[in-house]
Amino acid sequence: MAENKALVQSDSSAQSKQSIGSQPANQSPATSKGSRRSSGGITRMLKGMSTIHEKATPRSRHKQKSSHDPVNHPAKKPSPKKQNPDDPLGSKGGRVSKSYTRKEMLKVIEITKETMGKILSKTELEGTRFSFVANKHTVVRLKPDSVEFPDLTTVVKVVPGDTYDRALEMQDAGNASDHMPVCVLNFANAHTPGGGWLNGARAQEEQLCYRSTLIGALQPRLYPMEDLECLYSPNVIVYRKSADNGYSFMSADDKLHLNPSVSVISMAARKSPALTADKSTYIDQGQRQLMKDKMRLILRTAAVNNHRRLVLGALGCGAFRHPTQQVADCWKEVLGKVEFKGWFEQIQFVIRDGPYENNLAVFTKTLDGLNLG
Q: Quick one: where's region Disordered (predicted)?
């Protein structure tokens, strides 16, 4: 696959892919010829956008409660169903409090598409349709002598919960040293934008799509993603509450475009790598090294785009069947490298176990309290 993929919008443009450092896809060839921006330049290009602030306090969440609940739940609670062990919708080590019929999920999807279109039409100039491709050629090793090196102290936390909920809590808390939105990790599908969101699937990526404008930034032309490639979406508006809260709107319908923004890094793990008989270890150590290379790319992409607060997770654990302890160990080994010391102020691993999963306990034991200096 060619090294250059494009910064694109969610439109029908037929331009070829370029790299993360390239001009927007709607830029004329004459303007972009011979001109390449660094990843840091991308951040500076977007700093004028209303959702990527120069102020120390991030946009506060709209407190107006919506009367619009997009899911009409039946009065009678459905009888419990046996849940797939790989169903990611556990709740702090258990099941979510709400279950959804296929009809209800189709309604969620319908409202997502309708609402997202309205929000994107109001925020297009703020970069909500943009994603950039980051790969090993365009995002290089971090250097402490960089003018943007913040020299911060980081203590890793592992917490139960929901990716977006935790990110919004961090955003609301504010931060004097970080003017950027919180950056979250999306456990992406390498071949299909949003994974199975149009079919009502409920893994982590699909949940992010149901609740935000993320799918509007994941341009199909950027797929499939290669192994050492991820997508960086700088401005994703979160406008819905979680599945536990009925996917209700976070504000009045006409204020949804004013809800808080996060940035998203979409990275795909390899599916079903070969494991030992007890499922605890990669048979091919090259798969373990690939996972560490993916983690390095995630951290570098966040750092060069000036993010100091990250929400990460158990990448590949669950339906893709990567060994939990090995993945946690990989994160620990990568984060412990001198390269990443001083670049981040907050790193939180947010884990939500499904039935029969033990990811939270493993990640807590391995990573919680890890001091990166």
A: 1-99
118 in any annotated domain: yes
pLDDT the model gives residue 201 = 94
Q: Which of 216, 215, 219 is nearest to 197 (CA)?
A: 215
* Torsions phi, psi for 310 (to 5 deg): -125, 145
Structure-token match 């102290």, residue found: 153
> How many domains are there within the chain?
1
Q: Does 276 map to a domain?
A: yes
pLDDT on residue 5: 52
Q: What pLDDT is attached to residue 53? A: 36
Q: Is 1 part of a structural domain of the chain?
A: no
CB-neighbour burial class of residue 150 (10 A; exposed 0-12, middle 13-18, buried 19+): middle
The three-class DSSP label of residue 159 is strand
Which residues are within 8 A (CB) of 16 and not within 5 positions of it... i.e. 6 or more apart? 4, 6
Of 363, 366, 357, 361, residue with least CA distance to 89 = 357
Helix or strand run (H / E) with residue 230: strand 229-237
Task: Report residue 100 as tokens.
Answer: 């959804």
* Amino acid identity for residue 20 in this structure: I
User: Which of the residues in the chain have pLDDT under 70?
Assistant: 1-97, 176-177
pLDDT at 11: 40
Does some domain include residue 54? no
Q: Which two tokens stand for residue 304?
A: 């060069």
CATH (domain of 188): 3.40.220.10
**Residue 127: which domain range?**
89-367
The DSSP code sequence of 48-66 is: TSTTS-SSSSPPPPP-PPP
Contact 137, 3 (CB under 8 A): yes
What's this model's pTM, rounded to 2 decimal places? 0.77
Q: Are 312 and 244 in contact (CB under 8 A)?
A: no
Runs of H (alpha helix) within the chain: 29-32, 39-46, 102-123, 163-173, 204-211, 214-217, 285-304, 324-335, 359-367
CA dihedral for 124, 219, 190, 334, sign (positive or negative): negative
